[in-house]
Amino acid sequence: MPESSTVKDVLSSSVECRTSPLRRFSLSALHRNSLGVFCSEDNVQECLSHISQEVSSFGLRPAWTEPGSGSELNIVAALNCMYDLIQLHRRGLRTLENMEVEQLKSNSNVDFLQLSTTRLKEQLEISKRENTGLLERERQLQLKVKSLQNCLKNEKEEVQKLQNVIASRASQYNHEMKRKEREFNKLKERLNQLLVDKKEKKQAIDVLNNIGRADGKRSLWKTEKMEAKHEGEMYKTLLSDYDTRQRELQLENAELRKVLQQMKKDMVSILSSRKPAAKGDKHEHGGTQAASEEEDDEAFDSSKESVELYCVHAREKLTNSIRLQWRRLKSHVERLDSQVSSAQTGESKSTDAVPRETHEEEMDRLKLEIQQCKDFIQAQQQLLQQLSSPCDEETASLLSDCYMLQEKERLGDEWKTLEEQRKIFERERRNFTEAAIRLSHERKAFEEDRATWLKHQFLNLSPFSDSKKPSLSKSKSAFLISAETDSSAAVAPEKFIKHRSESPRCVPLTSPSTADLYRTLCLIPEDSSTKPKRKTEHVEESSVFCGNAPVRHKRWDGIQDRTLSQEKNSSI
Amino acid sequence: MNFSEVFKQTNQLCKVSPDGKYLATCVQYRLVVRDVSTLQILQLYTCLDQVSHMEWSSDSLFILCAMYNRGLVQVWSLEQPDWHCKIDEGSIGLVSSRWSPDGRHILNTTEFHLRVTVWSLCTKAVSYIKYPKACQKGIDFSRDGRYMALAERRDCKDYVCVFVCDDWHLLRHFETETQDLAGLEWSPNGCVLAVWDSCLEYKVLLYSLDGRLLSTYSAYEWSLGVKSVSWSPSSQFLAIGSYDEKVRILNHITWKKITQFEHPAIIDNTKATVYKEAEKRPGVGSDEMPLHNITMGATLFNTQSKYEICPLPVQIPVVKPDPDRASPKIGISVLAFSSDSRYLATKNDNMATAVWVWDMQKMSLEAVLEQTSAVRCFQWDPLRPRLALCAGNTKLYLWSPGGCVSVQVPTEGGFQVQSLNWHCSGDSLILLGKEQLCLCYMDTDQEDK
Fold this sequence. Notes:
Oligomer: heterodimer
Largest sheet of chain B: 6 strands, mixed
Radius of gyration of chain B: 23 Å
Distance between the termini of chain A: 51 Å
Shape of chain A: elongated
Structural class of chain A: mainly alpha
């Protein structure tokens, strides 16, 4: 009754549209009787009136005008009405279709728009990235341009400077040349004049009387002796000059040396007063030296020192000792400074202060560390030697034992875990054997069934399977699980029979040994060597056996993997 | 400070005798010898022509008057006014004339520097020195008067001849490594000869008395080089002023530069005092000038001035020289050490109004004196660290470590001080104008700012 159902639908929809409580209430009786039919023999009139109302509300000509005209239906009017309704319905459907189409269209539009927006966003993203990349490149190029411009400016300045130099030199050369030319011209003129001028004025000196020499002595002849004397005098002058200079330098040196000695004394005294115990030897030596110096007579001391320090070594010694003392004093002062600063600010010395000081301190610290490490290494070496060399047996054994202690503990732990696992294995084996027993029971039942089924088959080679089918369906339902095993069902029973024949001991009622069991279940191939790996695998599989399903084929059939996995999931 | 009256002179020829007793001046063709203290005329000599150059002999007994255009040299004696001597160079001409250190020989340089003639007044003997070089300073006598160094140019190469002034014996003759030798100068101790190249190459060579090359110094290449050279009186330092506006000081032990003094246009970051001359209106009381006996002239025509200490930074006015002209007016042209070698006064040609005083002990700038007009001449007191300078106006300026003073020269009609000379005792100054001269007697106890 599809039409009735459609009418029902329309009605229900129309009912939903017009929410008039009265109507709803009145319709509740009409609406959906037990059989889901609107009209039945008893409520025809009501149905009629209702329908006429509905139809009129739709704007269609009602099928009948008078409600009391009887239960006779104007068939023509009804048909018209129905036709009108059908038209209406079709129109509605069409509009619905159209709307659906439009909705689909709009959906597709929306999808399209979404796709396009995502695409455009991506494009925008890409172009933004490109833009930043280009901006970055532009910035770099601008920097390069600026630096090149600077270089160019510098080069231009240099070129300008050189050009200026060239220009000044050129003007100087020109000036000199002009001067020389002028002089040359004058010379030429003079020469001309002299050549023309016959009367040449000679040089002459006219002195009233000769005057004596400035120093009053008589002038001497120019002889070689005189020349030698002159040379000698010249060298004497030079030598005397060098002498005076050397004397001056000597005096200066002596002064400076005195100052250095004084400085050394002062530094030594300062350091000795500050650090009483630290650097014993050198310091004491210096102290004793100072003391000895002070003890000696001053004049004697200075002369002795000056004599000593004339040689290079003594001089070097003095300068080196000065340097050493100065370094010590400097480090001491630095330490004091750092102490003061740390006391004030609570921070350690600033890193940027004096790199050399920090560097030296770092060096000292590192040296100390190196020393410590060396000691440590030495100790280690000693210990290693002790180990390698055979000492008392007891101690050796003790030692050997004590080294293996950790490993022994670990072994113990592992042993424990293994024990636990073994227990678990035992339990599972037990379960496994019970399951195997059950399995054998089931197999027996299965065999019996099969036998009966075969018998039936054989006996009833007729197509009348309808009556039998229901009975068989029950047994078949048991086979549903192993429906996939049909392909190898032929194979497996043979094997089973074969193995069964091979191992007559395999009686389901008696609990067989694990190995026999495995062999029976054809889980183990012909070689009976049970590797522990296999064992673990079997352990896993035995856990599967909790589920009641013949899974003996799974090792040889790939098709069974699905069932195996299913059963595994179910059991585990 | 006392000022004498003004006397006439020509050609800036006015010299005090080496013993400090006499003052010789040339007026046209006359030679006037006065007593320095009384300024009374002691002797009057007449020369044959206008005197171009006048020089006292070292023993203060004779005066040399040279007339270059006539080629004549006349020598006068103070002791014997009747004694005369005339040296005629003839057609060969005369370019320069000078005494030898013993005061008995005269060295005449002929025209075109053809030769140097050595005339002996004792023996009338003549010696010739060939190929003298025509340069800025081609002849120099050592301070003790024993040796003479002469620059020679022969076959396009420079040589130095060292003569013993006693008998003009050629002691040494060596070639110098210069392109174009511009000058030579003995160190005050007479053991080192400084030789420098022309401005086209910066090169200063130091030769020992016996002709060995001790050292070469060249600060830079290509740009114009040495402009002036000066030894310190102690022979410890050699100051080299160059066209790059710097003075480089070499030391006598290593002959290496120990410092250089720069003359920047903007003075900043220095402990020196900068004195700036500021003109005062006439009629203002002269409180700042501690003059004792001022012989006031027509002070209405003369504006007073005083020094003000300028706070740093100070900008010195710079005149950029014409780049196309040769020997541009830039660089250190004047170097003067004080007598104790403590101070060095310098002048940079493109800052013509400023005189820079450097302290040689601290090797730093001590003072800068900025005048209102270009400085013409400055000279250290022979005995004290006192610098006298003049700027072509009617004032005399004095600087000492204690301070700086500007003194108006009280003369009628304005007396522009063009140059000045200290008396060898350091007690008086001879101020030379264009055609006048004036003596300024120092008071020993006045040094105020």
